[in-house]
Structures are given as C-alpha cells and as structure tokens.
Design brief:
Radius of gyration: 20 Å
Shape: globular
Structural class: alpha+beta
Helix content: 40-55%
Length: 182
C-alpha cells in the first residue's frame, strides 16, 4: 500500500501543477518545414479572451465555515495568494509549502495556478455546513463534478480556515477504501 501512496501523491502533485497547453506560435522554422512538406503552415489557434471575473475584497469573510470556503475560492479566482494563505490552516500551508518545494515552484504559483484554481471562476454550490467545536465541514460541488465533496475546515485564532491537508488525507483514504472493494 506504500507504493500506492507514493503513486497517489505523485499523481496529486501532477494535478496541483497541471497547466493547460497552448498552440505553438508560427515561427520561421515551422513555416519552412511546412513548405518543405508541401502543406500550409499551421496557424496558432486564437484564444478567445476570457471574461474577467473578479470578486470584491469587501465580500471576503471568515465568520462561518461556508464564508471561509467561499472566500478561499474568491481569493483563488482573484489570484490573491496572500489572502489564500491566510485562509489555509497552519497544517495546510505547511503541506502546500512542502509541495511547492518538491516541485521547484513557489507557494504563490501553487495557490493561484494549480489544482486549487477554479477553472469556471464560479463559486461552487455549498451545502450541509456542520460545526463541531473547532472543526467543521461543508459539502461543495461545481458544474464539472458529478457529486458533492466534503471540505474540512478548522477554527484557528478565532477564524475559520480551509483544511486542505485534511481534505487530501480524506481523499486518499477514500481512494484506498474504494480500491480495497475492487
């Protein structure tokens, strides 16, 4: 099972660092190659500009677990790494710092451009907030997900923080349980 953990962590690292590719721009070298093969040079696809989505900082809140999670998504969409760091639990930030170091990237790069990046730039549906002392969970789902996932949060210094480390541990445990059933 240790090999499985290593494979899962490697896949997770790839997911965190995943970036979309883009078409190569037309260069004299590939234009000449195209002419030599008697075909038309490949024109790069023109990217459609994405509508700018930005959430006002005034809407940021950590009063409830749901508020903290939504603020985490808003800050991620806004590319606001400093706020994202403030919204992560201490253990989660240590997890992200370790991942960044292993990948040779900065923490800010991971927080604003990796798996935590919300591709739709919309706040996911959130339901079933449950608070148990200094621990809480919410369930979230966006349009690309077939089912709701549970996100743990913890209260540190009187503020709700996203427990990304616990979320990853729970996903790993769920995956291990599912594989044992097969």
């Amino acid at each position: 099972m240790n090999n499985f953990k290593l494979v899962f962590i490697a896949v997770l690292a790839l997911i965190i660092s995943a970036c979309g590719g883009s078409a190569e721009p037309e260069t004299p070298a590939n234009a000449n190659a195209a002419r030599a093969e008697n075909r038309a040079p490949v024109e790069p696809e023109k990217e459609k500009p994405e509508p700018e989505v930005s959430y006002p900082r005034e809407s940021y809140s950590q009063k409830t677990p749901t508020d903290a999670y939504k603020t985490y998504i808003m800050a991620t969409v806004n590319g606001d790494a400093e706020t994202v760091k403030k919204l992560l639990s201490k253990a989660s930030l240590e997890f992200v710092e370790k991942s960044a170091k292993e990948q040779g990237r900065t923490v800010d790069e991971l927080l604003t451009g990796g798996a935590v990046q919300n591709e739709s730039k919309k706040i996911p549906e959130v339901r079933n907030e449950k608070i148990d002392g200094k621990n809480a969970t919410i369930e979230f789902k966006d349009e690309s997900m077939p089912e709701y996932l549970k996100m743990p949060l913890v209260k540190e210094n009187g503020e709700w923080k996203v427990a990304l480390d616990k979320f990853m541990q729970e996903l790993l445990q769920q995956l291990q349980n599912d594989l044992q059933k097969v």
